[in-house]
Specification:
Blueprint: E1 5-7, E2 10-12, H1 44-47, H2 69-80, E3 94-95, E4 104-106, E5 114-121, H3 130-138, H4 146-158, E6 162-166, E7 175-179, E8 185-187, E9 193-195, E10 201-204, E11 209-212, E12 216-217, E13 230-236, H5 239-249, H6 254-259, H7 268-283, E14 286-288, E15 292-294, E16 304-307, H8 308-315, H9 321-329, E17 334-337, E18 342-346, H10 357-368, H11 389-403, E19 407-408, E20 414-415, H12 419-422, E21 447-448, H13 453-464, E22 471-481, E23 490-500, H14 517-530, E24 537-540, E25 549-559, E26 562-570, H15 572-577, E27 584-590, H16 591-596, E28 613-622, H17 627-636, E29 642-651, E30 660-669, H18 678-695
Parallel strand pairs: 3-14, 4-7, 19-22
Antiparallel strand pairs: 1-2, 5-13, 5-14, 5-15, 6-13, 7-10, 8-9, 10-11, 11-12, 16-18, 17-18, 20-21, 22-23, 23-27, 24-25, 25-26, 26-27, 28-30, 29-30
């Protein structure tokens, strides 16, 4: 804020400011002079032509064409249905031929498909005219001198970054485009030394590098006040190459921002001519005849076929073929009809983001107007959709196991191929059909798992190492059986559980007791019972069928004659191979088979009206006979009065023959029609006893 004051003893009503102080130019040596013919009271913005509006546009990375004034004008022209007026370029008179003074060699065409250059002599380096400085300042660029300002102005106008070299500082007066050497050092225009790598593209003269291609020029060839000859560079650099260089060097510039997104490969010459014209006019130089245009790789957009019906279906609109063609033509796409439905569209060279029909759909949508696309709502079924049976069963199993006190664990499906030997799995077992991972993260994750057991044992080991010794956990997931490395494997959903340590947590009112086989068996029976699967059979495995579990302490789980898994105590050899020093019990069930055995029908049963009567029966049988066989024999008699039967005691030892054992059952009798009399119960009980004695060559204890 200016106010009246006294300076050096004199009263001052204000102050005089230079162009630089007012941020209206770069001159700082004196006050800014205006035309003496101006009327007092005229607004300064009108006098200096400062009334232009500045619009900030936020772009997505796929639209580098709009990083220029012309690119934005094309979009506005399409919206306003008007043609874009491009700058008129009429080159001044020339002398000589550039090919006699300079040359360009591209040694890395994969990094630089095109490089063009023009030469101007007799240049006078000076501040840019006010209009040029004003344009740059409005775009956030700092004016430097007329030559550098012109390259920046043309970049903002066309989107094509340019660079001007002091031609007299280029050794051998020529350009070589090559990649750097590892460890090569180069000082950029900001005065910082950069260490280069072999994948970075450099612009060099006959002996040394003079610029980092697409990023920044070098201090050794910058435009100086004494410069009289300028070589103008206009090129197309591979976007990935510039992006990689910019990231590695931590150097972000306006040029790299455009090059790494993709400039117009066909726009290099137009931008070059535009800059040459302005330099000749503003710098007072003479343009050398001809131009250099090295173009080893031709970049052209391929035609894209687009179905009008497909676009309408995808967008939910109803445009005709002609309407879509007009929309695309308005942004300079070359559109031709191939039949009544399809359009053949060739994107212009500045649209590097168009390569497929979906890209054209997006163009149609935005040009037509998103607000013009009708809003539709998906149809909602009157009844909510049901989850698949497999999903419901999986969640039900998780819920049941958690209620039983088991914690869910999730392990990688990738495991070490050594698990087969650790689990003592026999040759020829299906679990040895391993599918190898093509690019494993580690050697311990080289194959897909064929069983859930290794993951549980490794989880047990991690917990034991942290002194967590009382463990109950489960995992449900897929196992994979190879059918060949180039074929999709068989995927089977499995459930596995492990129990180790104490049966219950230590407590003052309960003695410590270590869990055993029957604890885990009870959990498996409870799971199957809640799932609605009645009378599962746990049958002993033969010794030769046991691998990771102890023979005699392993059972197969059978439902309706189908084996769905096994349960047992982990073998000491397996525990040792995993470094475990505590007994553990495991079971593994095939969930894919299990879910098909679960009935969707739910039936209610009335509470019994009449009391039950229980009778016990104890018999001596051969020790190799399973108790479950006797229970099944009683159930198969289909006696109407037998409500339930269960085992409550097994004894081997004193007063029992050496090869025999005593088994005690309790049978529950009940009638749904009357209160039972002892005689009726005694008759059925005697019948059952006689059947067992006869079928199993059994006897009653003495």
């Amino acid at each position: 804020m200016l106010e009246k004051g006294v300076i050096r003893g004199q009263t001052s009503e204000g102050m005089l400011c230079s162009e630089k102080e007012l941020e209206l130019g770069t001159a700082s040596s004196g006050i800014m002079e205006l035309d003496p013919g101006l009327m007092p009271g005229t607004k300064l913005v009108k006098v200096l032509n400062l009334s232009d509006a500045v619009i900030e546009i936020d772009l997505t990375p796929n639209r580098p064409d709009c990083l220029s004034l012309i690119g934005v004008a094309r979009e506005i022209g399409a919206m306003e249905k008007k043609k874009v007026s491009y700058p008129q370029i009429h080159l001044p008179e020339t002398r000589g031929n550039i090919s006699e003074l300079s040359s360009v060699i591209i040694e890395a065409p994969d990094h630089c498909p095109r490089y063009a250059a023009q030469l101007i002599e007799g240049i006078t380096i000076a501040p840019s005219p006010f209009w040029l400085q004003n344009r740059l300042l409005s775009a956030g660029l700092r004016p430097i001198n007329n030559i550098v300002d012109i390259t920046n102005f043309v970049m903002m106008e066309t989107g094509q970054p340019l660079h001007g070299f002091d031609f007299d500082n280029l050794e051998e007066n020529r350009i070589v485009v090559r990649t750097a050497s590892d460890g090569e050092r180069f000082t950029t225009l900001d005065g910082k030394e950069r260490i280069l790598s072999s994948d970075m593209l450099m612009i060099c003269d006959g002996k040394k590098p003079v610029a980092i291609a697409g990023v920044m020029g070098g201090l050794n060839s910058e435009i100086e006040n004494k410069t009289t000859r300028v070589l103008i560079e206009s090129a197309y650099f591979e976007p990935a190459s510039v992006r990689n260089t910019s990231k590695k060097l931590g150097l972000k510039t306006d040029a790299s921002h455009r090059f790494e997104r993709g400039v117009d490969p066909d726009g290099t010459i137009a931008a070059l001519n535009r800059a040459a014209l302005l330099m000749a006019e503003i710098g007072g130089g003479t343009l050398i005849g001809g131009l250099i245009d090295e173009h080893p790789v031709i970049i052209k957009n391929s035609p894209v076929s687009m179905s009008v019906n497909s676009v309408n279906s995808r967008l939910g609109i109803n445009l005709s073929q002609d309407e879509m063609a007009d929309l695309l033509s308005s942004i300079e796409f070359d559109v031709q009809k191939t039949n009544s439905d399809y359009l053949k569209v060739v994107p212009p060279s500045f649209r590097v983001d168009i390569s497929r029909a979906e890209d054209l759909s997006e163009e149609v949508a935005r040009l037509w107007g998103y607000d013009n696309i009708p809003v539709t709502f998906p149809s909602m079924p009157s009844e909510p959709a049901r989850w698949s049976k497999g999903f419901e069963v999986r969640n039900q199993i998780k819920d049941i196991m958690c209620r039983f006190g088991f914690a869910e664990v999730i392990n990688y499906s990738f495991i070490s191929p050594s698990f087969c030997d650790k689990l003592q799995i026999k040759i020829g077992d299906i679990r040895r059909r391993l599918l190898n991972i093509l690019n494993p993260l580690t050697e311990d994750q080289a194959v897909m798992r064929t069983t859930m057991i290794p993951g549980l044992l490794e989880t047990m080991g991690r917990n034991l190492s942290k002194q967590n010794r009382n463990l109950k956990f489960f995992e449900i997931g897929k196992v994979f059986f190879s059918k060949g490395q180039d074929v999709q494997p068989d995927e089977v959903e499995m459930l596995a559980a492990l129990w180790t340590g104490l049966r219950n947590e230590s407590s003052w009112h309960e003695k410590e007791a270590v869990c055993d086989f029957y604890d885990l068996k009870g959990a498996a029976e409870g799971l199957l019972d809640i799932l609605g699967i009645k009378n599962p059979v746990f049958t002993a495995y033969e010794d030769q069928d046991c691998d990771c579990t102890i023979p005699g302490r392993t059972a197969g789980i059978v439902i309706q004659g189908t084996i769905i898994g096994f349960i047992g105590e982990v073998h000491p050899n397996t525990l040792e191979s995993y470094g475990l020093k505590q007994n553990a019990f495991i079971f593994e069930l095939n969930v894919d088979i299990l879910k098909n055995l679960i009935s969707d029908d739910k039936q209610a049963q009335a509470l019994p009206k009449y009391p039950s009567i229980s009778r016990d029966i104890t018999i001596i049988v051969n020790k190799n006979i399973e108790a479950v066989s006797l229970i099944n024999s009683v159930r198969n008699m289909d006696e109407q009065l037998v409500e339930d039967i269960f085992l409550f005691d097994v004894y081997e030892g004193e007063n029992i023959p050496q090869e025999s054992k005593s088994i005690s059952f309790r049978i529950v009798y009940r009638s749904s029609q009357e209160t039972l009399e002892d005689e009726a119960v005694t008759f059925v009980h005697k019948k059952i006893s006689e059947m067992l004695l006869k079928e199993y060559n059994a006897s009653f204890p003495a």
